């Protein structure tokens, strides 16, 4: 789960949509990510999910009434100050209209208006409502007021048919919001990063291929962090993992396909990060039909060399462009990586020992050493891949500056 929310104060406002039940998962996910969570509910929301459910999950009383007690404290002002972020999830057409037009006639709208926090809103409604002129107008107003709008997903609506209006899954909302909030004023704004991910596949026949154990997790982590820092990201990948907001994916299969896509995207890019595990070799020929056992006591497959993506891009780069390679090795890791750095004309080489069982291929963690042209190798201890990605991109940001 995203570390971005750790120790943050998050106010979740729930309104009267049929998808209000998903707010329970949203609150739980925020709590799991280490955030302090409070919940505000409109009167209509309480028809769909109970106050008690959200009070227990958030471990705090729920804000429902503007005039709820006679103490000196003004609850909605206190809560407005407390919040670092406000999430209106799900948001009805009604609440969107009220907030966009400055109406503060209940506990939640008064709190929203009194808060300088970062604000995220996830509309959920019938598709005709979502396309209604007033709703479109009001969402545009919120956008220009600096709200982060999480677009509804296309999917099966409560009305029984497929269209746009469905509340995205809570984890998607959480990840998308983290990327967008961090990207505002991000250090890679205006920069284009091309990142590769996954293991390439080299066909032997229509059903078989040669590949490796790469999962694509490192490349996806790099793409996520680059997007969080505001970059324009193109992820050229052989595997489809989670959808990342603001990342354009190009799905390829073989090393040659990946090479073509990288060369094309690199011409106007600022940075290339080669985290895919590309096959050095491919079968000399691909059988048109499935290779049969009959007639083959032993089968020898001739392999020929694939193009070297990192080396070609390294030698193609112009002044100002940065190239980062990965060296997955099982022996003499540092010496091999050092050689690769100069041979491929890369600016950084990330050496990882993939013989470790607790890191490297298919693991959520990685243990790497960052080699660069003018500094001593920097060893980074075992960390989640997302933190390794942050460490790598930190070096890239400093070099671009
Ligand atoms: C069964 C049912 C489901 C509803 N679902 C939605 C919805 O998904 N989105 C929406 O904008 N309004 C929906 N409404 C209408 C809102 O509940 C209504 O506009 C209400 O006034 C919203 O109040 P609030 O914005 O203060 O929560 C629904 C109403 C009912 C009865």
Automatic annotation (TrEMBL):
GO biological process entries: coenzyme A biosynthetic process; pantothenate catabolic process
Pathway entry: Cofactor biosynthesis; coenzyme A biosynthesis; CoA from (R)-pantothenate: step 3/5; Cofactor biosynthesis; coenzyme A biosynthesis; CoA from (R)-pantothenate: step 2/5
Binding annotation for CTP: 280, 290, 307-310, 326, 340, 344
Catalytic activity: N-[(R)-4-phosphopantothenoyl]-L-cysteine + H(+) = (R)-4'-phosphopantetheine + CO2; (R)-4'-phosphopantothenate + L-cysteine + CTP = N-[(R)-4-phosphopantothenoyl]-L-cysteine + CMP + diphosphate + H(+)
Positions of the Flavoprotein domain: 8-176
Keyword tRNA processing: no
PANTHER family linked to this entry: HOMO-OLIGOMERIC FLAVIN CONTAINING CYS DECARBOXYLASE FAMILY, PHOSPHOPANTOTHENOYLCYSTEINE DECARBOXYLASE
Protein's UniProt name: Coenzyme A biosynthesis bifunctional protein CoaBC
